[in-house]
Amino acid sequence: MDFQRFFSTIKKYLSSFWAWLKPYLVQFHHWRKRIWKKYHVNKILLLLGLIVVLVMSVYLFYIAKTTKVQELKAGLQEETVIYDKDENEAGSVSSQKGTYVEVKDMSPHVVDAVVSTEDRNFYQHHGFDIKGIARAGLRMVIRRNASGGGGSTITQQLAKNAYLSLDQTFNRKAKELFLAIEIEKNYSKDEIMSMYLNNSYFGNGVWGVQDAARKYFGVDATDLTVGESATIAGMLKGPSLYNPIDNPENASTRRDTVLQLMVDNDKLSAENAQQEEQVAMDSLVNDTYQQEDEGYQYPYYFDAVIEEAEEKYDIKADDLMNRGYKVYTALDMNFQDGMQEVYDNNGYFPSDASDGTMVQSGSVAVDPNTGGSKL
């Protein structure tokens, strides 16, 4: 086949078709302009747009004003109940479980790390960040997906946890913004930061900065170093994935990312960041945390439930804790308690073995019919 001749013929036909179509397109364009101008379509569309914006703003303003933001702390304390295989209550989880500490009793490095990572303009904005919203909007347009996240300030995250649904929609985002403005009117920046950090989940049954500091580093929140603070801030993205006990390598990588963000935000020198990056994560871990809440009596099982809900239903850990869910599981409390008695028996797992070797083990009981884990 002579391809050159073939394409030449196609080009000729297309040129002829365009020559025939062009006059009609010109006529349609002139007709559209006359109609558009005659009936003032531009002005009508602009007026309709302004009316929609006005009505929506009044609606959202009403929601924000009638929401009792003074009761924010109570909203964050709503419990999610976990049930066993027989639908008996096995325990509960809620956001305010840990030891509450004010910002003044936290290491300043923690606040610097969190602000650099989560909300760089936290101390400048009044509940929302125009630049952050613009960046999130651009990502949404590019990806054609509203679930990409981003753009929410720390205050907006508090508003979402306390009052709103989990849907990643423009409507929810707009409500979140108006509520954040009201929260900023009723609370100081330090109070907002305290509520945020005390109601954040850090994995292994631990809530809040104070208990996280005890769990992972054996210190109080006020004594956290730069590297430890960066590690804790990094866990906010994914407590199961980035905690230094279960995933030290991931935790180390995430810590280094946070340190770099602190450098970019002028909260840390590049030299100090490099020094902290050289510290092995394993050398920092020191668990001195004592679980006091009986409601979280099966921490490892509950952690697995939370992680599965995150993956399977796209529910964030903070949302799961704050929305008052009822979670039904395959947990068998008799199996769980019996196995715990075995593990507590020093005869099976001696803490003072003659050769110094600590005995380690793992156990699982699976329902063959459903595949659900009983313990």
UniProtKB/TrEMBL annotation:
All copies of domain Glycosyl transferase family, residue ranges: 91-262
Entry keyword annotation includes Calcium: no
A biological process term (GO) from this entry: regulation of cell shape
SUPFAM superfamilies tied to this protein: beta-lactamase/transpeptidase-like, Lysozyme-like
Annotated Pfam families: Transgly
Molecular function per GO: peptidoglycan glycosyltransferase activity; serine-type D-Ala-D-Ala carboxypeptidase activity
Taxonomic source organism: Tetragenococcus osmophilus
Top-level taxon: Bacteria
PANTHER family documented for this protein: BINDING PROTEIN TRANSPEPTIDASE, PUTATIVE-RELATED, PENICILLIN-BINDING PROTEIN 2A
Reaction equations catalysed: [GlcNAc-(1->4)-Mur2Ac(oyl-L-Ala-gamma-D-Glu-L-Lys-D-Ala-D-Ala)](n)-di-trans,octa-cis-undecaprenyl diphosphate + beta-D-GlcNAc-(1->4)-Mur2Ac(oyl-L-Ala-gamma-D-Glu-L-Lys-D-Ala-D-Ala)-di-trans,octa-cis-undecaprenyl diphosphate = [GlcNAc-(1->4)-Mur2Ac(oyl-L-Ala-gamma-D-Glu-L-Lys-D-Ala-D-Ala)](n+1)-di-trans,octa-cis-undecaprenyl diphosphate + di-trans,octa-cis-undecaprenyl diphosphate + H(+); Preferential cleavage: (Ac)2-L-Lys-D-Ala-|-D-Ala. Also transpeptidation of peptidyl-alanyl moieties that are N-acyl substituents of D-alanine
Keywords per UniProt: Carboxypeptidase, Cell membrane, Cell shape, Cell wall biogenesis/degradation, Glycosyltransferase, Hydrolase, Membrane, Multifunctional enzyme, Peptidoglycan synthesis, Protease, Transferase, Transmembrane, Transmembrane helix
Listed name of the protein: Glycosyl transferase family 51 domain-containing protein
Family affiliation: In the C-terminal section; belongs to the transpeptidase family.
GO CC terms in record: outer membrane-bounded periplasmic space
Record-linked InterPro entries: Beta-lactam/transpept-like, Glyco_trans_51, Glycosyltr_51/Transpeptidase, Lysozyme-like_dom_sf, PBP_transglycosylase
Membrane spanning stretches: 44-64
